[in-house]
What we know:
It is a single chain. By secondary structure, the protein is an alpha+beta fold. Helix content is 41%, strand content 24%. The protein has a domain of 105 residues: Nuclear Transport Factor 2, Chain: A, CATH 3.10.450.590. It is built from five helices and four strands; from the N terminus they run H-H-H-H-H-E-E-E-E. Strands 1-2-3-4 form a four-stranded antiparallel β-sheet. The longest helix has 30 residues.
Amino acid sequence: MTTEVQTAEGARRGSPAVFAVALGASLAFVILVFGVFTLLLRVGEGPLRPAVDNYFTKFNSADFAGIYVSAAKPLTEETSEDKFVAAQQFIHDTLGNMQSKTIRGISVVSERGPASTVITYDAQFANGPATVVLKFQGSGDEGKLVSADFKNSDLLPRPERGRRSRG
């Protein structure tokens, strides 16, 4: 009795068609997941879109006093109008007008007091890119600015970290 043993070299591991189908299915899954997350970000941003658009419209037209007047109490109680306007003017002078923005993240913060929503954008300004973090109380036309932070720009000065005063 003779037995034939097939060697590993003689066996075919898989066809190119099976590989192509598996690769295509994996790519389709990644695109689907990315699309779902993008859709969730857009839906989450939707209620505050009027407030965000209002902020950037006033920012681009250098109406910083208008931004301050319509801001929420935490901002107006913590910062004087003169300081807010001066800070926003400096940022606008340095970065220029906002040209485009892409949402990077959104979160709802509900600690003590009314809930607030934090929306992070990667934005392109006339003079370069920056990350903009806007915090609002309320939603829709009722959304009021609590803070506007501009980060990750080589044009803006970096706050000194961990520097000790000598004395």
